[in-house]
Write a structure and sequence with these properties.
Number of helices: 6
CATH topology: Glutaredoxin
Distance between the termini: 6 Å
Radius of gyration: 16 Å
Structural class: alpha/beta
CATH architecture: 3-Layer(aba) Sandwich
Number of domains: 1
Largest sheet: 5 strands, mixed
Order of helices and strands: EEHEHEHEHEEEHHE
CATH class: Alpha Beta
Strand content: 15-25%
CATH superfamily: Glutaredoxin
């Protein structure tokens, strides 16, 4: 379940029923996230009219919800934004560093995952979205056939438990047992 900045709740399944979903986990205190957000906005404006759903999910703490709203307004960002103040959703998606961007297909399979942000990541994300839309137009094609997990493995995964790799910030969480989500 996604919680909007004004308390409204949106089920992830309801978004996936409309098309593929780009979900981006970020925070106002994360420098790479701030660099990535204008690119996410651009992709949102390009692909939302084509049926791609977007969710920019802030992991800022509840007391910082005002900062999230202010940041989005100052940057003139219109991408649908949500807050995951207890990081329950992030944990459900096994997010260990931010930003993390995940593309989920309507069949609920994960198509692409990217941890961190480096200039040019938005080009790869655009290519993945174009491939998904092209594949959706071709009958009988399996969209999950080109699944990829860029940024997985290597130093980024090693850094997950010891801080973040360049272009990433560790997700700030308070010690608590992991909880499963139904989303």
């Amino acid at each position: 379940m996604l919680t909007g900045l004004y308390g409204e709740e949106v089920a992830i399944d309801s978004l996936l029923d409309k098309g593929p979903l780009v979900i981006n986990f970020w925070a106002t205190w994360c420098s790479p996230c701030k660099l990535e957000m204008p690119h996410l906005e651009k992709l949102y404006r390009e692909f939302a009219p084509k049926g791609v759903q977007f969710a920019a999910v802030s992991v800022d703490m509840k007391r910082n919800a005002g900062r999230v709203k202010t940041f989005l307004e100052k940057q003139e960002l219109t991408v649908p934004a949500y807050i995951d103040h207890d990081t329950r959703l992030a944990k459900g998606f096994n997010v260990r560093a931010i930003p993390t961007t995940i593309i989920i297909l309507p069949d609920r399979s994960q198509y692409h995952r990217n941890k961190g942000y480096r200039p040019g990541d938005e080009v790869l994300l655009r290519k993945h979205l174009q491939a998904i839309l092209e594949s959706a137009g071709d009958e009988g094609d399996d969209m999950a056939g080109e699944a990829g997990e860029d940024g997985e493995g290597g130093e980024a995964d090693k850094a997950a438990g010891k801080g973040a790799a360049p272009g990433e910030a560790a997700v700030r969480t308070e010690p608590e047992p992991a909880r499963e989500t139904g989303d």
